[in-house]
Amino acid sequence: MCGIVGYLGKRDCTEVLMDGLEKLEYRGYDSAGIAVFENGSIKTVKTRGKLSCMREKLSKEGSPKGFCGIGHTRWATHGEPSDINSHPHSNGRVTIVHNGIIENYTELKAFLTEKGYTFVSQTDSEVAACLLDYYYSERNPLKAITETMKELEGSFALGILFKDFPDRVYAVRKQSPLIVGEGEGEYFIASDIPAFLKYTKNYVLLEDNEIVCMKSSGTSYFDVHGIPIKKEKQVAEWDVEQAQKCGFPHFMLKEIHEQPDVVNKTLEDIVKDGVPDFSERGISDELLKNVGRVFIVACGTAMHAGIIAKYAIEKLARVPVTVEVASEFRYMEPIVGENDLVILISQSGETADTKAGLELAKEKGAKTLAVVNVKYSAIARAADMCIHTLAGPEIAVASTKAYMVQITVMYLLAFRFAFARGKISLEELKKLTEELMLSPKAISDVIERKGECQFIASRLVNVEKLFFIGRGFDYALSLEGSLKLKEITYIHSEAYAAGELKHGTISLIEDNIPVITVATQENILAKTISNMEEVKARGAYIIALCRKGTEFSENTVDLRFDIDTELPDMLVPLPTVCALQLIAYYTSVLRGNDPDKPRNLAKSVTTE
Ligand code: M6R
């Protein structure tokens, strides 16, 4: 999604804005721009394309010289990526950058056109600039903002410059993230912390409908009515190093390497006296014992973590678990009641559909639990209970370490669920927890063998389509392996429950089509092997991810990656998914892609 930065201080504003935008590149974008006060007037430079195009344009046209400005990376929603549609947008006396969607922009545009405003872009954002200008009749920025907020429907974070106030940056948010960095005599706005982390760790979280005004004398905060409010400062737990590549060619590879460590941290955080303990988070055994049904609501990779959780909770605790795609859940009138627990899984904690799922669950009186990586994010704050996963900042668009800690947390929750409901004894709870403690080492072992994953990737680099198959936990992994691969390699990939293939999809199998088979679960291995043989007989090229020592009949498997671990089958997804991530990563790199910035994608999806 779009990235916003803003700066007011003593540094070269253009440099700070460009640097901040580079730190937000991971969010996904197709154009960029900045607006800086230079000798009292606003100079705007914007262009379609990457920040390198912006840098080129700045060196050709000259960088604006000043100390106060705003910047933006745009992920197109209304209107194609083009120079004109890029932000900042200006109209008369107001210049803005916008993240989000203004839902009633057509009505507002008609109203403003009637008032004599003309529009140059196809964006919804330009309407916000005009509306601010319209309400700026008394040259009172705060009044213009509060009046505008009454009219705007949808989600927005806005960074705003008023022509008459060359020493101020205003910002406001509703349902789109925006934070304010407070350094020594310098202030920042940004969509995410990495944008200003190198200058300050102190930040203030703007809540919905709150406004900030940054001046050289300091920051002031206001509510939706323009009444001053006091805000609490937070200190970012991240350090600069965490937001940098630290010698790795890509964030994705760095984040894959961080997995053993973040799983360890997560275990240390939750396991007390050898067993998972969620009581500090308000999740008591009493609550788990009395839950009727569990709904897991999430999107993408987080939803795939939910499928692993479903299998683990149902297997151990015998509670029915439904996994729902958040964008479906929110509109399908789900039958959820007071006795149910709705678990929202999200890395960013800002995903619009997951957030809407949470609101719906609350309306229906269900208990809500957020499993979220970004502390203080909207979902983390709105849920009744929250488990903060400790993956640290995940910059790469393709989620890896966040998934890994999500499934770690969900295994721990499944264990506690089973204990609370009397399905396992304390000894069994301890044993399961102890086994899970072996997972960081198992993941490390896979990372050490990344060369083998690279070799598998070299076989995939030129294919046009492929399949993933598996059963049970292996099916959940197939879904995730396939998503990871397709999002960064652009190879058409489909994941199927191995037994389902012959109900239609097998007709797509022809000579040499790779079928990546995840076959780690002993109880259904024979069935999976039959499915492998079915596709092999039709010419498939089989790549198997299986436990060390698994035997297949001669000539079934063309390439294999052995998971060599003592982990029980239920926990084998932890190291196995790491191999799938590495295969996706290397295939992407070998195809000449940048795995950190896949086309059309955004890190945090704050629109429906
Ligand atoms: O921030 P969230 O976990 O809520 O994001 C959900 C999905 O958008 C996300 O997992 C997406 O599928 C990733 N790009 C996958 O790698």
Notes on the structure:
This protein is α/β, with parallel strands linked by helices. It folds into 3 domains: 3-242, Glutamine Phosphoribosylpyrophosphate, subunit 1, domain 1 (4-Layer Sandwich), CATH 3.60.20.10; 245-437, 3-Layer(aba) Sandwich (Rossmann fold), CATH 3.40.50; 443-594, Glucose-6-phosphate isomerase like protein, domain 1 (Rossmann fold), CATH 3.40.50. 36% of the residues lie in helices and 24% in strands. The strands form 5 sheets. Strands 3-2-4-1-10-9-11-15 form an 8-stranded antiparallel β-sheet, with helices on one face. The protein is globular, with a radius of gyration of 25 Å. It starts with a strand and ends in an 18-residue tail after the last helix. The structure holds 5-amino-5-deoxy-1-O-phosphono-D-mannitol (M6R).
Topology readout:
Blueprint: E1 3-8, H1 13-23, E2 31-38, E3 41-48, H2 51-61, E4 68-74, E5 89-91, E6 94-102, H3 105-114, H4 125-134, H5 141-151, E7 154-162, E8 169-174, E9 179-182, E10 187-190, E11 202-205, E12 210-215, E13 218-222, E14 228-229, E15 234-235, H6 251-257, H7 259-270, E16 271-272, E17 275-276, H8 285-290, E18 294-298, H9 300-317, E19 321-325, H10 326-329, E20 341-346, H11 352-363, E21 367-372, H12 378-382, E22 385-388, H13 401-420, H14 426-436, H15 439-448, H16 450-460, E23 465-470, H17 473-489, E24 492-497, E25 514-519, H18 525-536, E26 541-547, E27 559-563, H19 573-590
Parallel strand pairs: 18-19, 18-20, 20-21, 21-22, 23-24, 23-25, 25-26, 26-27
Antiparallel strand pairs: 1-4, 1-10, 2-3, 2-4, 5-6, 6-7, 7-8, 8-12, 9-10, 9-11, 11-15, 12-13, 13-14, 16-17
Helix pairs in contact: 3-4, 4-5, 7-13, 7-15, 9-13, 9-17, 13-14, 15-19, 16-19, 17-19
The protein binds 5-amino-5-deoxy-1-O-phosphono-D-mannitol (M6R).
